Amino acid sequence: MAVTVLGGRTPGLTHFVIFSWYVFTVWHNFSITASGRHPGTQSYGGRWKYLTFLDLFLQTAFFGLCFLTDVTRHFFPKLGRGGPASFLTDLRDTILAVLAFPVGSFVVLSFWLLYAYDRELVYPKFLDDIIPQWLNHAMHTIILPLLLVELYIIPHRFPSRKKGILGLTLFSGLYLAWVFWIHHVSGVWVYPILGFLSPLGRGIFLAAASLTMVPLYFLGEKLNSLLWGR
Fold it and tell me: Membrane-spanning residues where (predicted)?
């Protein structure tokens, strides 16, 4: 079967290429930050207040972990269950299920839905002169296809739904707390759309956005099951 052949022969190379791509992309993000051209990077929280950048950093760390797991399994194949390769594999699978896939998918889908409705709410036009188009797509488009590649090349063991959704909920809660803290300190909302909403509307919007990640968790679980029978 094609999945087995691809998964059995090329995950290390695939992970190295994807990890290198993300390192390159993060480097370009920091170069824009260093130039001082992006106004958001000069305010409280800097680049780290944006879910897009946090997700980009997450994807970089995740695929770096994938490559490290491949290398460990290659050089220490006989350590067996409980060894470093086993630990890294479990960690890799948990991060994919709980964070990398649902958060990455959410960033792509929510960005383009809001962009299609009114780009000024999420990605004002002046950013076109600051952020290259390829970098915009690297942050908001390519992430999802690369996650699908990851699901395709190797099987993953998802945690129990209770633990998985609890972990995702904790992440969402921490990020929302970060967004509100930034507004408390600086008086500025991370995303322009939040400033146009009433307090009730803002609460409903953020709650709905957070809940959207749950079906995306189920989607990742379902895709993994369809591809690998797990």
Answer: 12-30, 50-72, 93-114, 134-153, 165-183, 203-220
Element (H, E) at 124: none
**Encoded amino acid at 10, one letter:** T
Which tokens hold the place of 4? 């087995």
- 219 token code pair: 């989607």
Contact 29, 169 (CB under 8 A): no
- Tokens 């999802």, residue? 144
Hey, what's the torsion of the CAs at 141, 144, 145, 150, to 10 degrees? 150
Q: Spell out the residues 6+ positions from residue 36 whose beta carbon is closer than 8 angstroms to its own.
A: 42
pTM of the prediction?
A: 0.90
Domain map of the chain by residue range? 2-228
Q: Which two tokens stand for residue 105?
A: 């998918």
Q: What is the pLDDT of residues 48-93, one digit of tens each?
A: 999 999 999 999 999 999 999 999 888 877 665 667 888 999 999 9
- Do residues 167 and 24 make contact, with C-beta atoms less than 8 angstroms apart? no
